[in-house]
Amino acid sequence: MSSKARVLLVDDDVSLLKLLTIRLMANNYEVTTANSALQALSELQQQTFDVVLTDLRMDDIDGLQLAEQIQQLYPSLPVVMMTAHGSIPDAVRATKQGIFAFLTKPIDKDELIDTLAKAVRLHGQGQSQGQQASHSYIVTRSASMYHLLEQVRMVGATDVNVLISGASGTGKELLARAVHESSAVSGGPFVAINCGAVPAELLESQLFGHKKGSFTGATTDHVGLFSEAQNGTLFLDEIGDMPLNLQVKLLRVLQEKKIRPVGHSEEIPVNVRVVSATHKDLPAAIRDNSFREDLYYRLNVVNLRLPALSERREDISLLAHHFCEQIAARQQQGVKRFSDDAMDLLLRHDWPGNIRQLQNVVEQVVALSPGVLISAQQVAMALQCELEASSPIALNEAKRQFERQYLINVLKMVDGNVAQAAKLAKRNRSDFYKLIKKHDIDVEQFSR
């Protein structure tokens, strides 16, 4: 990997792109160019950068609109804006929007190099590569994951509560560990509990502890997980499954930094970083009164969203090989590998169970493969076993899921252009809009 800082240079003036590329390369930068905002967004999806240097005035999408999309997708990536139309209103808008710096054309060479150096220094050049080393159990080469790990690095330096959202099997506990390791309490304990796996009547005792004799079966004193996590991190997985009465008590603990074990009359001070996670839609749970809004805002100071495995397909082969290596080390045998056809099956699968499902499939095929090479037939059989093991759903629900996913796939293919999507689906535009509305699909998310 290159030790040079990586710049994404965006301008619809081809001659200026060439000139600035030469200038930046002479100052030891690695440069990727894009002659439009759309091309820039495409490059950002495929690789990581340390800074974006973009023109303000462009034909398709202007620099401020591009910067807004970058901040939504990659919030820790600094953007430096250039313009030949420098004006106070533009500069004020750019500054308010969080633009790192605003440079007026003709660009002063020294000011440009100084500004980029400062942006790279504050952003942390090479962090996307370093994150993988510092969190060696997170295996990825995905740009979206690199940017997520950069957010982890930044939030780790604070003491705010973090809520991790993502589908089941995406690795929320691993990300919580990464937050812990990046924090000031990394030398302390990391304690985890799945709130949905503990009976409601026992969860309070598990979290806060209890005094001997405080309830039937309490034959000894019990130290709760908050106390075990003192000066460290407590990870509350599946926080959306916590009973309402306990949510009130958790909110009080977060506010006052004190716990009261069951059966105790005195409160005990605690110093614990809380990281929580859920696969549920908590705003929806708030609306149906199954989750407290005040607790949600207390937990969700920073939200980290883990992408599904289908959103980071470049990691499938990497993870599959990683699991093969883990199995080989555990069983003290040679590493088995996938045939090209077998890997193609893995890459084309949707993985509704995400990384956990991929790991299960790899475990199966490695165990049942007699030779060193895993065949496509073995993978197909393992995927079929996974399919049969999952609970069947009603036919109407299966149709609904298929129709929704079909619409999403078509919209992705045409970057959210509804007219083109309707044409591909061989439906008129009016009917296609009705289907989009029926499935509550946000077309804007597919616009690139």
Task: Describe the model.
With 448 residues, the protein is α/β, with parallel strands linked by helices. It folds into four domains: 5-123, Response regulator (Rossmann fold, 3-Layer(aba) Sandwich); 140-305, P-loop containing nucleotide triphosphate hydrolases (Rossmann fold, 3-Layer(aba) Sandwich); 310-389, Helicase, Ruva Protein, domain 3 (Orthogonal Bundle); 395-446, Arc Repressor Mutant, subunit A, CATH 1.10.10. Helix content is 49%, strand content 13%. It has helices at residues 14-26, 37-46, 63-73, 88-96, 109-123, 127-134, 143-156, 172-181, 200-208, 225-228, 244-256, 282-287, 293-299, 316-331, 340-348, 354-368, 376-389, 395-413, 418-424, 429-438, and strands at 5-10, 29-34, 51-55, 79-83, 101-104, 162-165, 190-194, 232-237, 258-259, 268-269, 272-278, 302-305, 337-338, 373-374. It has a five-stranded parallel beta sheet with strand order 2-1-3-4-5, with helices on both faces. Strands 7-8-11-6-12 form a five-stranded parallel beta sheet. Strands 9-10 form a two-stranded antiparallel sheet.
